[in-house]
Amino acid sequence: MDTITHGIAGALIGKGYFSDRQGRVATFAAALGAVFPDCDVVAELFSRDPLAVVKYHRGITHSFVGLPFFAAGLAWLTCVVARRLRIESPSWSMLTLIYAISLASHILLDGLTSFGTRMWTPISQQRVAWDWLFIIDFTFTAILLTPQISAWVCGDRDKAFRRGVWMWIVFSAGAAAVWELARTIGFPFRPWIIAVWSGIFAILFLVPARSDWGYRIRRATWCRAGVYVTLAYVAACGMAHYSALRRVKGFASNNDVTIKRIAALPMPPCLLDWGGAIRTTSGVYQSHFDLRDANGPAFRFSGDSPRDEYTIRAMQLPEVRLYWTFVRFPVIRTSSEDGLHIVDFLENRFITRRKNEIPPFSYRVAFDDGANVVEEGWEQNGEWLRRPEKIVPPHESDPSPRKQP
After folding, report:
1. Choice between 386 and 79, residue whose per-residue pLDDT is larger
2. How many CB atoms lie within 10 A of CB 247?
3. Residue 392 has pLDDT above 70, yes or no
4. Count of alpha carbons within 13 Å of 323, Cβ hemisphere only?
5. What pLDDT band is residue 403 in, cutting at 50, 70 and 90?
6. Closest of 359, 197, 190, 363 to residue 275, by C-alpha
7. Nearest-angstrom CA–CA distance, 345 and 363
8. Cα–Cα distance, 230 to 267 (Å, whole number)
9. Distance between CA atoms of residues 12 and 17, nearest Å
10. What is the mean pLDDT of residues 136-155?
11. Angstrom distance (rounded) from CA 354 to CA 352
């Protein structure tokens, strides 16, 4: 889940359940606690190791084991700052509770995505990924944000309608921008969906501003309603995941596929779009399907290259072993390029709709004729950097020096 959405979720919780009695500091604490776990990206900024995203991200700051300590520490720090600035704040124990709830919301939301999170570090390094939500789900973000905007619109009777019009324009334009983004990356949806969302925003922003009942609804009530709708949406995603996984398992059963790992993966733009992935002993089956389609999903198979000495050597590298704890549906491909022997680990967790595009978070190792590592790193850096880099010093086991990048 993206950090902005986490912060919006924390603010919704703070406004709905704490700010009326505990003041603005409670809302600040809830929002801060909801984004705090992502502070681990600082380690990536200062590390020269591109595998830092695997080593450090979604580790101890995203763990229920570390949660009590971070909640108590953040509460203490907030009390100190509030006291020095002479700002009235909740007690340390109340702030600890607020931080604990918002930290937990972050951990759970990340666990609902396909990227997953190590929510029991350091007891366990296993990544928990329930595959209910796509990493960036604009519908989910809108559900979290709109009740807070509706409460703000109705917060001032004299300015309410003007605020409502502006918010309707902004959010309708945002829906159009999401449509363009989805079309660009290969996951288009029908343009009339923009009109539907624009109508929903008009009801939420304009109707209350023109009706007396809109001013009688407290901000906390708006936000609690947002929490309930959010939970209902997550439950709907869970049911959709159950239905999608049944289809994937049905394909595997009907075709006698030997399963090493299987998943139904959420895809944009909505909860009815899913990807199926099955890792077998020799490759990966993949599919992209719509739950509204009565026909079974059509899968394509991507096979591993025959295992050779370079594949075996690559699998022994400590960087690849670390990478292997992160990937879920890799296809192993070997090739020759510029006199080098290439081993590519193509991760298929995040299905791409573009032809010949290397999937995100794919990894490459290049060897010379003596099976010595020349280069290794992310293929497109897993984030679209096209040329892999030598990211580690020579291994002690390598008898000859490597080429410098």
Report:
1. 79
2. 19
3. no
4. 28
5. very low
6. 359
7. 5
8. 18
9. 9
10. 93
11. 6
- Whole-number Å distance between alpha carbons of 400 and 64: 45
Please give the single-letter amino acid code of residue 102.
Answer: S
DSSP class of residue 122 equals T
Residue recorded with tokens 């289809």:
247
Tokens of 375: 């280069």
Strand partners, 341: 336, 367
Q: Other C-beta atoms within 10 Å of 213: how many?
A: 9
CB atoms within 10 A of CB 65: 14
| Residue-averaged pLDDT of the chain | 87
pTM value?
Answer: 0.87
| Distance, CA of 403 to CA of 40 (rounded, Å) | 32
pLDDT of residue 158: 87
Rounded to 5 degrees, what angle do the CA atoms 77, 83, 86 make? 140
Interatomic CA distance for residues 49 and 56, integer angstroms? 11
Q: Compute the average pLDDT of residues 27-51.
A: 86
With a CB cutoff of 8 Å and minimum separation 6, the contacts of 326 are 54, 127, 361
Where in 227-356 does DSSP place strands (E)? 261-266, 273-279, 283-290, 300-303, 330-337, 340-347
| Tokens 């004729």, located at residue | 369
Burial (Cβ within 10 Å: 0-12, 13-18, ≥19) of residue 120: middle
Two structure tokens written together for 26: 């409670």
Mean pLDDT, residues 400-404 taken together: 41
CA distance 336 to 342: 6
Amino acid residing at 110: D
d(CA 144, CA 4): 11
